[in-house]
Hints:
By secondary structure, this protein is mostly helical. The protein has one domain. The protein is globular. It starts with a helix and ends with a helix.
Amino acid sequence: MTFHLYLTAALLPVGLAAAVGAGAAVAGVWLSAIAARTLWVVPFSAGLLLGVVAFGLMPELAWQIGWSYSMVLLAAGYLLLLAVNRFLYKVCPSCAHDHDHSACATVLHGFAVPLILASALHCFLDGWSIMTAEVLGPLGVRLAVPVAVALHKVPEGLALGGILRASVRSRLQALVWGVLVETVTVAGGFLGLSAAPHIGTVWAMYPLGITGGWLCYLGFHALHEEWRRRGPVPAFMPALTGAAGAAVLQQSVRILFR
């Protein structure tokens, strides 16, 4: 019984962070369902995604392993997805110029698989980070890290839900995938509970950096596709708003919990 109580107490912060992310993903899908707002949801979500990487993930990576390694990992992730797009799996907005995107059944046809994989890995590492703080950190860190991750999941989840809805055929599919991806946070926490005391979290910075490059690729090309469809102003204004919102939230979290 004591072990079960310990397990429940340890996983509770991870579960709360996953619930925040899942709720934000549902909200992102819901925003996409409002016809009057559909035109700005995709570029807004792309801006959020880029803002999460630029103002949340990258400063955290730089603090842990330095800016030079962080930029190399980001570039590696970007080039990896570029190579996948060219040789293995077509991500529509960056394929051949003669491709007719208006004939696609979804606005961001081809985005779903790489977005789900990258976001799931990101969520796994979020759960691992929370559990490492819970197991190894002092009381202040055990309180601050889960709150910081949960707040960071608000823009992340909104971006995930908005872009997923534009990448799959139905709202139900987007909802199911958005919630499933965010619950991977719990899996990361569960595995981290036993493994984190032995190997820590520094190793996680390297796949996280590559994931950041992957997310940058998706955010940039989602924005580029909107620019091609509707012009620079309707694409960039919502994107800048999303990036600014992500920046304010991420920097506020950093100031409060550093």
